[in-house]
Amino acid sequence: MKKKGRQLWGLCPFHEDTEPSFAVDERKGLWNCLGKCGEGGDAFSFVMKADGIGFAEAFALLQEIEPQRRRDAEEDKQLTTDNRPQTTALEYLEKAVSYYHKSLVKNEKAIAYLQSRGITPEAVRVFRLGYVDGTLRGRVNPDGRRSLESLGLLNEKGNETMYGSVVFPLVDAGTNQAVGLYARHTEKQQHLYLSGKRRGLFNPAGAKRDGRDRPDRERDRRFGSVVDRHQECDLCLRRERSDG
Question: Can you give the pTM of this predicted structure?
């Protein structure tokens, strides 16, 4: 690979190439072939294509060589041992988002669901999509459980309310901190969201999903478009990649 402008250029490994047509943008973490095959993506998609493996395997492989794994391990430690009284509910929500994200790449059913929706591994990584497999409740201390209950992630019995669902973090545009969650069950025609007043995307205050107090159809329609919004953002990512 040779530096040319802001990109690295070389022969494409995915087709017979005689002229450098394979570009890597280190700043964006993206690659793109401008030659015969026209392939492109991020580190995950490169490893998946080069090694012929799935997203979960690619994620695990990259974790082995990526320093981020040390930060993830520290997050897990904080999730189980953090007794600081100043830890806020939103901080616990942020940790839950990270935990759910790591749970997703281990679950083939969740990955298959996202693929059926046309959501790419790149979007999974960028938007930190996750999956609720029911193991979070065993990873937090009593203070953490109370915070997760107040957020609506755990019910009164301590079970995870979004169990079996793919979750889409709703983030504050200024800080990129998670301020809410939207969930789609992978098998049932069911979508859930955290109740309460939140910043960022529309989230009806006080709306419950226990079968007794349901939001109106307009609220459901607006919130039902969250997955589509992620798909639109995914499309924008791919356009940015192809535009270089």
Answer: 0.59
